[in-house]
Amino acid sequence: MALNIIDFKDVDISSYDAVVVGSGFAGAVTARELAERGGKRVLIIEKRPHIAGNMYDEYDEAGILVHRYGPHIFHTCDQQVFNYVRQFTGWIAYQHHVLADWYGTYMPVPFNKNSMEIAFGEEKAAHLIQKLIDTFGDERKVTINELRATDDAELAEVADFVYENVFLYYTQKQWGVTPEEVDPSVTARVPVFISRDDRYFQDTYQGMPSLGYTALFEDMLGHAGIDICLSTDAVSVFDLEFEGDAEDSKLACIKIKGQAFTGPIVYTGPLDELFCGRFGRLPYRTLDFVYETYDEEYKLPCGTVNYTVTEDYTRITEFKHLTRQKSDKTTIMKEYSRAYEDPDTQIPYYAIIDDENKAHYERYLALTESLPNFYPVGRLAEYRYYNMDRIVHLALGLSRKILDAE
Ligand code: FAD
Ligand code: UDP
After folding, report:
1. 159 with 151: CB under 8 angstroms?
2. What pLDDT score was predicted for residue 213?
3. Could you say which of 40, 209, 269, 271 would form a disulfide bridge with 34 (CB–CB 3.0 to 4.6 Å)?
4. Which residue puts its alpha carbon closest to atom 6 of ligand 1?
5. Quick one: pLDDT at residue 117?
6. Which of 115, 168, 174 to mutate to test the pocket of ligand 2 (most atoms within 8 A of CB)?
7. What is the pLDDT of residues 352-395, one digit of tens each?
8. 71 CB contacts (<8 Å, ≥6 apart)?
9. 1: confidence class by pLDDT, cuts 50, 70, 90
10. In Å, what is the CA distance from 350 to each residue of 66, 102, 210?
11. Residue 177 CA: which ligand is closest?
12. How far is ligand 1, taken at its centre, from the CA of residue 54, in Å?
């Protein structure tokens, strides 16, 4: 069924059982579950003029389906999650491949046995691969930090090569600091893989929604129990009341249109924004995307090329590889990473995980813990680095928790 898009000025808040802020996977899955399994009337408040959060895709002027907030490839080992999203869409079986552009030569990322041969030549690579297998085991994934900790001189040479040619410059561009300065979990996402498997992910289920993500979200949110207000910022329509006047006073209630809303409020935006940055803004990295369209069938050899030693953008994605769309034109997208400085003009994409920032975030979270009907969930609200599948898993769990509590 079609989406129920309504204007916030027409909202009768007393007719809703639950309010969900945000329509990415965190908000959309929770809204659907509360409406479908819980029989609730759900109001979604979405700041952007469209649904689907960072997964939003649309056709550009050349008729190519492009992702507007970064390339998104669905991958998971969680069968329950895959079965859940699959109800709303057909599926293209797509396995993502990434190549590093190493001074004009392409090398598979994650760095693997095939990359070793390109970097060191076949003979030397054969010796080094055997040493890696003897040390770590065949078909094993080894983080760059683990590899750098080795005291074997030959493996240290491999570690230095991968560090210098795959991680250093890319991480500096992406995070503004060296790999040693980012949380180890970040670089661990792309380990060295002692394998011939050139795929970026090894999850059991991988693919792309056959009509795109926006179509998937339209199906998920097209439900009689769900109304959606687009271009509506929760910060401007929520009236927060606190237990006291002190800066650390906790939330007592959230009023919407003058009434205290007592049903579940699922919040998937940044917590610092909700509290108008009262303890200072949480740091994030933002991205600028630059699109280029060519009168050629394909521009790149695979879905994404990472520029690990040159250029000031981090990577280029060519969508047609992901979507299998047929056209004699193609659109590519370059990603530039920057510090997030202005909530009015920039989008917070990546939380910068470290102990100080986690403590900063916890201070905001503590303000909400007094309000039993307030549920922060998602990549922004939890200030975490989550893939889509984890978010679907969390949202399904949260919906169960809310419904079970009743
Ligand atoms: P979001 O998708 O960000 O949705 C949050 C929604 O809340 C947004 O629509 C936002 O407008 C809205 N919102 C925020 N504040 C307010 C407010 N005050 N009022 C109203 N609405 C508000 N994951 C993968 O699994 N595979 C990938 O290939 C992949 N690629 C990625 C590439 C990039 C560049 C990035 C940044 C992330 C990628 N991810 C990928 C992660 C994926 O984007 C997240 O897991 C997913 O977006 C999380 O969903 P969410 O609902 O928590 O957040
Ligand atoms: N990374 C890198 N070089 C690469 C790929 C990844 O240095 O060619 C590092 C970089 O720090 C990056 C992190 O590994 O931020 C995680 O990479 P991933 O591809 O998972 O990032 P995402 O797709 O989430 O932006």
Report:
1. no
2. 98
3. 40
4. 22
5. 98
6. 174
7. 999 999 999 999 999 999 999 999 999 999 999 999 999 999 99
8. 303, 304, 317, 319, 322, 333
9. confident
10. 20, 26, 27
11. 2
12. 4
Q: Which ligand is nearest to the CA of 387?
A: 1
Q: What is the 367 CA–ligand 1 centroid distance (Å)?
A: 23
Outline where DSSP puts E strands in 234-384: 238-242, 251-256, 259-260, 265-267, 284-294, 304-306, 315-318, 330-339, 350-351, 374-376
Q: How far apart are CA 230 and CA 2, in angstroms?
A: 15
Atom of ligand 2 at shortest range from CA of 187: 14
Nearest ligand by distance to the CA of 98 = 2
Q: Are 226 and 144 in contact (CB under 8 A)?
A: no
CA of 53 to the centre of ligand 1 (A): 5
Closest ligand 2 atom to the C-alpha of 174? 15
Q: What are the pLDDT digits (tens) for 155-173?
A: 999 999 999 999 999 999 9
Reported as a single tens digit per residue, the pLDDT across 169-220 is: 999 999 999 999 999 999 999 999 999 999 999 999 999 999 999 999 999 9
Pairing of strands 374-376, 315-318: unpaired
**pLDDT beyond 90 at 406:** no
What are the tens digits of pLDDT across the range 30-78?
Answer: 999 999 999 999 999 999 999 999 999 999 999 999 999 999 999 999 9
| Residue 297 in this model has a pLDDT that exceeds 90 | yes
Backbone torsions φ then ψ of 360, nearest 5 degrees: -60, -45
Which amino acids bring their CB within 6 angstroms of ligand 2?
100, 109, 166-167, 170-171, 174, 182, 186-187, 189-190, 306, 308
Strands of the sheet containing 205-209, edge to edge, are: 74-76, 205-209, 91-92
Q: Which residues contact 273 (CB under 8 A, 6 or more apart)?
A: 235, 343
Assess contact for 272 and 282: CB atoms under 8 A. Answer: yes
Residue the block writes with tokens 């683990």: 146
Q: Which atom of ligand 1 is nearest to the CA of 381?
A: 52
- Read off the pLDDT of each residue in 18-27 and give the average, rounded to a whole number: 98
Distance of CA 331 from the midpoint of ligand 1 (Å): 22
